[in-house]
């Protein structure tokens, strides 16, 4: 008999998170009648889930180094799954945006502009590249150095994109300062963990 604990590890965790994301999106769309309001609800909800999943992957190793324990080691052990789940969340986010554009272009262009589309497209290219190269076979194919540079550039571009995307909306609502603060905190966490790693080496 499969235990609950097994669903919190490895590929099962990814599929559990994917099912939860799909259920959330459908749960928002059905009551709204698959309308503009429903698509906007999904866009906002998946923006939040994407941020949380990205932060789990982005800060996992640093958290485990600074605060070793069962939870932080679980985060680090499953950061690939959180990264892939982030990609899935943002895929649903993109589908909702695309559907909004097709069904209500006036609202879409009121909420968006060409600059945000360009920067968002670059972020999506990085997300696709990171997801596609999250497997051992791709690491061997690219080589450790190229793989490392790709993932370093990708995660930092995405982190900065989250700061920029939410930061420009702070004048509209102060709540957008919260995701900015969370990403900045994760960046500081990584910097602190990197410094701690260097101190013993120097000593």
What is the element layout, followed by pairings?
Elements: H1 10-32, H2 36-66, H3 70-77, H4 79-103, H5 105-111, H6 114-132, H7 136-142, H8 144-167, H9 177-202
What would the keywords be for this entry?
single chain; 203 residues; mainly alpha; 84% helix
Name the poorly predicted regions: none
> How many structural domains can be distinguished in the coordinates?
1
Please provide the ordered H/E string of secondary-structure elements.
Answer: HHHHHHHHH
CA radius of gyration: 18 Å
Description:
The chain is mostly helical and 203 residues long. Helix content is 84%, strand content 0%. It contains 9 helices and no strands. α2 (36-66) packs antiparallel against α4, α2 packs parallel to α9 and α4 (79-103) runs antiparallel to α6. The relative contact order is 0.10. The model has no long low-confidence stretch (mean pLDDT 91).
């Amino acid at each position: 008999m499969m235990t609950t604990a097994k669903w919190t590890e490895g590929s099962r965790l990814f599929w559990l998170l994917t099912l939860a994301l799909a259920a959330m999106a459908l749960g928002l769309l059905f009551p709204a009648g698959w309308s503009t309001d429903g698509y906007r609800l999904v866009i906002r909800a998946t923006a939040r889930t994407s941020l949380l999943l990205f932060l789990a992957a982005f800060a996992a190793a640093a958290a485990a180094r600074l605060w070793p324990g069962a939870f932080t080691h679980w985060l680090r052990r499953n950061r690939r799954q959180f990264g892939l789940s982030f990609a899935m969340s943002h895929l649903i986010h993109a589908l909702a945006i695309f559907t909004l554009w097709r069904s209500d272009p006036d609202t879409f262009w009121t909420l968006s502009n060409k600059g945000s589309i360009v920067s968002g497209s670059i972020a999506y290219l990085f997300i696709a590249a990171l997801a596609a190269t999250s497997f051992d076979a791709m690491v061997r194919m690219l080589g450790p150095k190229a793989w490392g540079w790709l993932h370093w550039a990708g995660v930092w571009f995405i982190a900065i994109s989250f700061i920029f995307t939410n930061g420009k909306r702070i004048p509209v609502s102060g709540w957008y300062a919260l995701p900015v603060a969370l990403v900045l905190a994760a960046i500081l966490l990584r910097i602190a963990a990197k410094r701690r790693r260097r101190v013993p080496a120097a000593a």
